[in-house]
Amino acid sequence: MTSTATHPGSATCDVVGLGANSVDYVNLLPAYPRPQGEFAKMRIREQTVTCGGQMATALATCTQLGLSAKYLGATGTDDNGRRIRLEMERRGIDLADAIIRDGRNQFAIILVDEGTGERIVLWDRDDRLALRDREVPPDVLAAARLVHVDDVDQVAAIRAARLARELGRPVTSDLDRMTERTEELVAAVTVPIFAEHVPAALTGQADHETALRRLRRRHEGLLVVTLGPRGALALDGDRVIHSPGFVVDVVDTTGAGDVFRGGFVFGLLAGWPVNRVLAFANAAAAAGCTRLGALNGVPARDEVDHLLASGRHRE
Question: Most exposed: 15, 140, 265, 296, by fewest CB within 10 Å?
Fold first, then answer.
C-alpha cells in the first residue's frame, strides 16, 4: 500500500519540515562497549522505546514551544511507522501531507553511556521510504513562514530549499554528514546549521571560525555550527558570535542537535538578534539532555527560560 496525501488548499503554518523520523530503541549502559575486557559484555541498565529522528524531533520542539508545524516525509507501514505517526500527531505536528509507503520505517538502536550521556546510534531504513524530489509540494512550502530541511533525503531537501527560497521563505538546515551533494544543499538553504565535524570536512580547516570564514566565500547568509556541550558558533556577516553551552545533569544527548534547531527556528521566527537566538537554542538543547530519548527530552518553554535565567554557562 502506498498513499500520498492531497493538498488542494494548505493552511498557513509556522514551520514546514522535510526530513527523517525514527523509532529509537534506547539502551542505557554502564559504559561504552569495547571488544575486549570488562565492557565487552555488560548488562543493560535501562531500556526504552521512544520516537525521534532529526526532523520529527526538531518539529516536536517547535510545537512544544508554541509554533505550528507540518511534516513532509515518508513513514512505513510497519508497527514503527504507526508508532511514529501517532506520536507526531499527539505532539501537534500536521501529517496531512506526509506519505505512508510500503516498507520498514526508520529505526535506531541507541547505546547511551550512563556516565556521560554520550551515545552511539545504529540505524536503518527501507530504501523505499526515501522522499523523492517530485513529492515536494510547492503550495505547502508557500504556506509556511519558514522551511527546515535535514540531509537524509538530500535530493528532495535541495528541491524544497530552492523552491522555498524562490518563494521568499527562510530555509534552515540540519547538516550532519558529508556527501557529494552536501555543498549543493548548503548553497540551497539560507541558514546552514552544521554539526561540529561538517565545516572541517567542507573546507579542510579544523578551526571552526576559520572554516566558517572560508564558507563565507560561498554563502552570504548566517552560518552556524553546533559544538555540543560547548554551545554554538555563528558567523553573522563578518561578526563571529560564540554562545556557550549550559551546565545540566546529562542523561542522554540523543536529539540535542535537533532540539537546538527547533529552538533556533523559534527564536528566528520571533525576530530575535542572533546572540539571543543562539542562547535560547543552546538552553533548549541542554534541557533536552536531562531525559532519556529524543522526543522524550523535548523541553517545555518554562524549562528553557529557567535554564537561560540561571546563567549556568559552561566555561
Answer: 296
Contacting residues for 125 by C-beta, under 8 A, at least 6 apart:
20, 22, 104, 105, 106, 107
Tell me how far apart the alpha carbons of residues 185 and 192 are, in angstroms, rounded to a whole number: 9
CATH code of the domain made up of 14-310: 3.40.1190.20
Q: Among residues 78, 77, 71, which one has the least CA distance to residue 56?
A: 71
Q: In this structure, what C-alpha cell is assigned to residue 91?
A: 505532539
Q: What are the grid coordinates assigned to 285, written together?
A: 538543547
Partners of 123 in beta bridges: 108
Cα separation, 105 vs 306, whole angstroms: 36
CB atoms within 10 A of CB 30: 13
Contact by Cβ (8 Å): 90, 295: no
Residue pair 301/66 in contact (Cβ under 8 Å)? The answer is: yes
Pair 53, 262: CB distance under 8 Å: no
Q: Which residues on adjacent β-strands are paired with residue 174?
A: 150
| Domain parsing of the chain, residue ranges | 14-310
Q: How far apart are CA 301 and CA 314, in angstroms?
A: 21
What is the predicted pLDDT for the residue at 32?
82
Quick check: 245 and 284 in contact, CB under 8 A?
no
- Which residue ranges of the chain lie beneath pLDDT 50? 1-10
CB 32 within 8 A of CB 38: no
pLDDT digit string (tens) for 144-182? 999 999 999 999 999 999 999 999 999 999 999 999 999
Prediction pTM value: 0.92
The Cα 50–Cα 57 span in angstroms is: 11
Q: Quote the CA–CA distance of 223 and 237 in Å, as a whole number.
A: 9
Q: What is the 3-state composition of the chain as percent helix, strand, coil, each rounded to the nearest 5?
A: 35, 25, 40
